[in-house]
Please model this.
Amino acid sequence: MAPVEGGDVRELICVQVAVGVAPREVRVVTLSVPEGSTVRDALRLSGFLGTGAGAVSDLSEDALASGLWTVGVWGRKERPGHVLRDRDRVEVVRGLRVDPKEARRVRYRAQGRAARG
Model:
């Protein structure tokens, strides 16, 4: 149990925060947070936001608000004020730079040229 302001005591819940820092590179932190904590609270406690030692260089609350990064819980997009439940996994990913369909078309064309050439 964790004490909070006003003398109220809340149970701790376990959550994970996963950040895709680069292609095929994910950092994961497991946290114990007070019941009723939000996605924003978990991100702040994880150390990924800001300028600390474990912070991701361009991950900030402004970047989340602008859409440069997207946050979700178990793969479903959520807002930073979403209240977490025990064993939730908060996932933070960058926005796509290239449309996946267009990238597939480019690879297909390149393979066709390689086979002919």
The first strand starts at residue 2 and ends at 3.
